Amino acid sequence: MRKYRGRVHSQIEAVFHCCSKAIGVSRHALKRRGVRSVMIHCDNSRAAYLNVWHAIIEYANVEYGIRNAFELTAEMVCNWLQREMDKQLAPATICQYAAAIRTLQHGLTNFCKRNGHSREFDFSIWRELTREAVKDRIDGNGPWCGRGRAYEDPESLIEAIEDNTFRLCARLQYEGGLRAE
Hints:
Layout: H1 8-20, H2 27-32, H3 43-64, H4 74-85, H5 91-114, H6 126-138, H7 154-159, H8 164-176
């Protein structure tokens, strides 16, 4: 593959703009039409994913000396993810990293195809690492006691809420996963 010109930051931004950007495109409309999208549809996801992508590239640059985003290998991504998981992150954070890695994989592959190269990126090792990392946090052996929450005793916290409306909202969030904004 010919060398891609520019700083690694510029390369990552080019991958996003060329192959992963779908802000303003309805993911739900695509699903109704039977299209499975691995593009980024939300600006908050864009910011989070680009932070992960830049962190991976920075890690690979420091640890492996790569100067080109297209030199990234599954081993480098796996080692970065393992280092992050060693920090005892919340399951949701690990899942966000996994989603960002999946999108990076597709973005790099599509970028190469659009520019006449046959390189395929495969970072699928993240699936097994992610399952292993969140297993103890979900089944009750980890610090979250199987609740996946940061609170020691969410039941007591909910009961301490005086306003009935807010208590009901907190109970719905806890039991049903409802989000209130």
